[in-house]
Structure formats: C-alpha cells, structure tokens
Specification:
single chain; 208 residues; mainly alpha; two-stranded antiparallel ribbon; 61% helix; disordered C terminus
Length: 208
C-alpha cells in the first residue's frame, strides 16, 4: 500500500507540524489557522481529530502522552514517526512536481521548506518548463481563435487562464533567481533568520 498516495492535504499539514515538536490536535488546529492554512484547507476540529487518529493507526504518528488541564477533557499528544516523515516529505515532493489541483500545490509549496533548497530549485525548473509549454499552447489557441474571427467573449476563460499561467511562470522564475542567489532564508538555523525580527524591534523602539 502506498501510504503517501492516500494522504490528504490536511494530513500532510498535520504531519509537517509534528516535525516541529509533539502536539495535541487543539494546538495544531490553532497553528494551522494562525499560519493561514485555512485559506487553502477546510480546517475543522472534528476532521483534524479524525485525521490524527487515522495517522496513528497507519503508524505515521504516535501517541506520546495525554494531558489534562483542570476539568477539561484529556488531550492526546502526538509525535511524528520516521515512517510519517518519509510519507509526508514524499507527498510534498510528488505534489510540487505534479500536482493534480491548485490546493495540493499550495499545500506542497507551504511545506517545501522540509526539502533541501537545491531540490526545490530542481523541481521548480521542471515546473517552469511545463507551465511555459501550457502557456504557449494556450496562447496559440487564442491567436487562432482571433484569426478565425471568433468573438472574444467565447474565449475569455482562455485569456484568464493564460494570465494566471503567466503570473505563475513569473513567480517561479523569481523564486528560482532568489534560490540561486541564496536570497531566501530557508530555516531557523540560518544565521540571518532572526535579523528581520531584531531589526523590526529596533525600528519600533526608535519610533517610540
């Protein structure tokens, strides 16, 4: 059974959170919403609790502890297993390379920091080529329609898709340029990681 293929975008996001530290679903729910995942995922408490139970059954996550805060119900703390790490990283890699929906690509890109920057760059080179080929094909179809005198109203959707493709190509090219120049801070281990926050604090202090 290919566990990676059966993962949902919500399951991938949950496993990636456990890469940071063991958590209980309530904390995970808060972090997913805080980090804007609700813009690309339907995040409901019931779905997340069910997802975590399923991941534990598959051996991708494991129960590490149960916590109780006062009279509140017990909370189960989950940790990431090595099998879970391999599964979600494989999912991210596969769906960056060949996503089947915009949602999958958004989630994969959001978790791309779990790959090496060089690997992401190699994947993006291939994606840029594919996007360019699709844009060129669509551009040719639009030009053909114009040449045949077809009213523009009949291919407005083609023009919208072409505009989106062109934007995606431009973003991908910029990302590749920044990756090549080591202009993207890739992890908290990077010495530059805290500089922006320190600079912002200094500016706020001066302003005050």
């Amino acid at each position: 059974m290919d566990v990676c293929a059966g993962l949902t975008p919500l399951a991938v996001s949950a496993l990636a959170l456990l890469e940071e530290r063991p958590m209980h679903p309530y904390e995970m729910l808060h972090l997913l919403r805080e980090r804007g995942r609700a813009e690309v995922l339907t995040i409901k408490a019931g779905s997340l609790y069910h997802t975590m139970s399923r991941l534990a059954e598959l051996g991708l996550a494991q129960v590490q502890a149960t916590e109780r805060d006062g009279n509140r119900p017990e909370r189960t703390v989950y940790g990431l297993t090595e099998k879970g790490r391999r599964a979600y990283v494989s999912w991210v890699r596969a769906h960056l390379d060949a996503p089947t929906s915009p949602q999958e690509y958004s989630v994969a890109l959001a978790e791309a920091h779990n790959l090496d920057a060089a690997e992401l760059a190699a994947i993006l080179v291939g994606r840029r080529g594919e996007l360019t080929a699709r844009a060129d094909s669509l551009r040719a179809r639009i030009a053909s329609a114009r040449d045949r005198g077809i009213p523009e109203a009949f291919y407005l959707e083609h023009e919208r898709r072409l505009a989106l493709l062109d934007c995606d190509i431009a973003w991908t090219a910029e990302a590749l340029s920044r990756l090549a120049a080591n202009d993207i801070i890739w992890s908290y281990q990077d010495p530059r990681a805290g500089q922006h926050r320190a600079g912002s604090h200094e500016n706020r202090t001066k302003t005050a």
